[in-house]
């Protein structure tokens, strides 16, 4: 901080401020020079995102953080140890941006997809002490992130459990700004849960953990409990574009003809060059309508969360098209061994396989390239709720396989009984933390006016869910 006099900083720091000395972590710091942000445009932005989610086919999500891991490492020998490592680090860092892209198939052209991207500067409503990784800060700055804008144009958030508690407790309501309770950023996640929309991410486990920790409640103690909770809440299913790319790297996406990278930027650049029929347009009057749909490298927006969410949505649609077309081609091919046709259809070519395998699709076809009922297809069942985790054996998390035995049948039973957000685990603090939100939503009804499937839902989701896995 060159050029700043330390004594003046110290003097300014100790100027008397209204109730500031009483503020502690988890409470609002009431500062006349730093009042809660006005609700006008922030409320409108949140409501617009909610409206887009309520009418979309799926939602792509991306987040930006102040750091990843406290010790700077991510390699672990098992997925359970990796989760423990993440659970130790995720609550220590902040989510500074939340990007969503609500995606809807055009009513007149089934191959046209309307993208509605939204970018929010996420800021905790209650006082927080958090960690910053200098490497992450340099990364954010290199990609145009503005810390001043993050504070000035912030959209505040709280955990859903905290909001519900504030609505039902006079003492708690004194700590929670009314604007946050009415239209905080957590309302966007609540809408995704209530609307049962599929969630699409890229290499998304850390994003999922931050979503849960920042907007829902304390992270469950172990991987099995987290998978149970996520499947209860996000019953629309989750898809990971990096996992689809790893499964169809050579036989479907033909990444053997490029660098072979499945990073977000490289994957988009490669797929936009592939022969595909799916087309995109950005919905009008969106705050992020300046995003480019075609340019492979958008230096000014790259790694802004809203733009990355849009890129994730584009990648997912093109991946789906290529997988469905490859599957269709394989089933229509008379010649060739059945094993080969099956491998092409499922995108399970061996690592390093060269050439363009039989069944690869390069020509255009008529009609919808992605079935209207794509979510209930066997192909999507195969990828649903399976999240890529590079460098940790076996390389992905199949969330259904990590459900605890005692919890495996709980979601269906919960649906019949009226539901419960949290599985019966030994971690009573998580149960207590989310109980208020659950019970409050059941008494008062959901934001959409119906019963929350995420609260009393089936972890297997709609359309057959995980049964086909």
TrEMBL record:
| Superkingdom classification of source | Eukaryota
Query: What GO MF annotations does this protein's record show?
Result: 3'-5'-RNA exonuclease activity; RNA binding
The organism encoding this protein is Vitrella brassicaformis (strain CCMP3155)
Tell me the protein's name.
Answer: Uncharacterized protein
Q: Where is the composition biased (Basic and acidic residues)?
A: 12-40, 432-445
Q: What residue spans carry the region label Disordered?
A: 1-40, 329-369, 425-469
The family database entries (InterPro entries) matched by this protein are listed as:
CAF1_poly(A)_ribonucleases (IPR051181), RNase_CAF1 (IPR006941), RNaseH-like_sf (IPR012337), RNaseH_sf (IPR036397)
Which ranges are annotated Gly residues under compositional bias? Answer: 456-469
Its family remark reads:
Belongs to the CAF1 family.
């Amino acid at each position: 901080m060159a050029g700043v006099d330390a004594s003046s900083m110290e003097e300014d720091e100790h100027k008397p401020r209204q109730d500031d000395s009483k503020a502690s972590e988890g409470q609002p710091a009431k500062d006349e020079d730093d009042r809660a942000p006005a609700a006008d445009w922030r409320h409108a932005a949140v409501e617009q995102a909610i409206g887009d989610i309520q009418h979309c086919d799926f939602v792509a999500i991306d987040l930006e953080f102040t750091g990843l891991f406290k010790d700077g490492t991510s390699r672990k020998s098992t997925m359970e140890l990796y989760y423990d490592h993440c659970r130790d680090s995720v609550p220590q860092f902040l989510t500074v941006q939340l990007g969503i892209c609500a995606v809807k198939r055009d009513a007149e052209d089934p191959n046209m997809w309307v993208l509605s991207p939204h970018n929010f500067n996420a800021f905790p409503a209650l006082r927080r002490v958090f960690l910053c990784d200098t490497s992450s800060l340099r990364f954010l700055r290199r990609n145009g992130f503005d810390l001043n804008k993050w504070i000035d144009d912030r959209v505040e958030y709280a955990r859903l459990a905290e909001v519900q508690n504030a609505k039902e407790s006079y003492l708690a309501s004194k700590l929670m700004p009314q604007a946050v309770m009415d239209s905080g950023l957590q309302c966007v996640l609540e809408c995704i849960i209530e609307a049962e929309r599929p969630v699409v991410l890229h290499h998304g486990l850390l994003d999922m953990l931050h979503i849960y920790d920042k907007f829902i409640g304390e992270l469950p103690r172990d991987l099995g409990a987290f998978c149970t909770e996520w499947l209860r809440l996000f019953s629309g299913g989750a898809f990971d574009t990096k996992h689809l790319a790893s499964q169809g790297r050579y036989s479907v996406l033909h990444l053997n003809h490029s660098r072979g990278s499945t990073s977000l930027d490289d994957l988009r650049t490669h797929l936009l060059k592939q022969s595909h029929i799916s087309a995109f347009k950005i919905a009008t009057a969106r705050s992020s309508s300046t995003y480019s749909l075609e340019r492979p490298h958008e230096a000014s927006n790259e790694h802004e969360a809203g733009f990355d969410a849009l890129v994730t949505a584009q990648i997912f649609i093109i991946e789906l098209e290529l997988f469905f077309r490859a599957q269709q081609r394989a089933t229509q091919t008379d010649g060739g061994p059945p094993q080969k046709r099956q491998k092409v259809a499922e995108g399970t070519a061996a690592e390093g396989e060269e050439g363009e395998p039989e069944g690869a699709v390069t020509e255009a076809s008529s009609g919808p390239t992605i079935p209207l009922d794509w979510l209930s297809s066997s192909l999507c069942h195969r990828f649903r709720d399976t999240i890529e985790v590079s460098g940790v054996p076996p390389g992905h998390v199949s969330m259904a396989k990590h459900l605890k035995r005692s919890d495996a049948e709980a979601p269906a039973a919960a649906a019949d009984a009226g539901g419960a957000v949290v599985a019966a685990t030994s971690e009573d603090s998580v149960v207590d933390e989310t109980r208020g939100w659950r019970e409050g939503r059941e008494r008062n009804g959901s934001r959409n006016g119906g019963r929350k499937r995420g609260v009393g839902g089936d972890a297997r989701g709609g359309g057959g869910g995980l049964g086909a896995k």
